[in-house]
Amino acid sequence: MDNCCMVGDYKHGCYINNETQELIYFDLLSLAEKLQGKTQKTVINYQTIESVNVCYSLNQGVRFGSTTITLEVHLTNGVIKDIVILYLNTKRDELNRFIRALLASGLNIIDEKHLLQTILDSDERVGTIIANMIQK
């Protein structure tokens, strides 16, 4: 069972730990944000999470497209944190491990189109899965 998993890296990524019941987000900060003292690491305890909405997008650029999966984390104090869980260098098995850990977390996951389970059940590229969901 996947209790802990990192997607991305410690410069820009997300670590889920079901043993300590924490989501840890590592934000990619600009130089200006660093100079302003913005914290790169955000630790969110499960007890403070009301729900997690699964959001996705497909953006077409001039040379290539990009796919994004974001967790919209709604906290009990009304704050909403956006946590990206799909990065340019993300390997499919790494994403699948993260999704399994997230689904096993016991958090209230709102995934209206069942994107996470579809990714686990399919061998299709994540971008293709998302494109098909957007077209429906």
What attributes characterize this protein structure?
alpha+beta; globular
Secondary structure blueprint with pairings:
Blueprint: E1 4-8, E2 13-17, E3 22-26, H1 31-35, E4 41-45, E5 49-60, E6 65-75, E7 80-84, H2 92-103, E8 109-110, H3 115-121, H4 126-135
Parallel strand pairs: 5-8
Antiparallel strand pairs: 1-2, 2-3, 3-4, 5-6, 6-7
Helix pairs in contact: 2-3
As a percent range, the share of strand residues is 35-45%
> What strand line-up does the widest sheet have?
1-2-3-4
Gyration radius (Cα, Å) is 15 Å
What's the N-to-C terminus distance? 33 Å
How many β strands by DSSP?
8
Question: What structural class is derived from the secondary structure elements?
Answer: alpha+beta
Shape: globular
Approximately how much helix is present in the residues?
Answer: 25-40%
Tell me the quaternary state.
single chain
Low-confidence stretches: none
The SSE string, one letter per element, is: EEEHEEEEHEHH
Given the structure, what is the number of helices?
4
- Biggest sheet: strands, sense, closure? 4 strands, antiparallel
Averaging pLDDT over every residue, what do you get?
89
Task: Describe the fold and architecture.
It is a single chain. This protein has four helices and eight strands; from the N terminus they run E-E-E-H-E-E-E-E-H-E-H-H. It has 136 residues and is of the alpha+beta class. The strands form two sheets. It has a four-stranded antiparallel sheet with strand order 1-2-3-4, covered by helices on one side. A four-stranded mixed sheet has the order 7-6-5-8. Strand 6 (65-75) and strand 7 form a beta hairpin. The model has no long low-confidence stretch (mean pLDDT 89).
